[in-house]
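Revision sheet: structure tokens.
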Amino acid sequence: MNRTTEQRNAEIAKTLDMLDKAPKVEVNHLFRARLLQRIDAMESGKTAGATVFGRAFSPRLAFMTLLLVLNVASAVLLFLHEAPRQNSGAATAVVENPSADYGGPALAYYDDQPASGR
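Predicted:
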């Protein structure tokens, strides 16, 4: 694997000689202009799609819309539940007539008046 400097120089000279003898390819004089037009068309196609969808949907706009919807929904729920709440029938009966719970025969022992006098 050890090559001498002379062998390397010989291979380099042979490669350069082959490159000098290779036929030169002439490029059409409109090649550069057509290439630049194609690149511009590809970029404008990409940016046109990106501007339509890229600017229409942004995370910041979506987040702000979500916050607005949540605020409106919470305000609606707040105003809907401001109406006075109706108590259930059993709870209302206990509040209106508390003596029914404390006047039964089980608590007659603590009553000052005898049960027969009622």
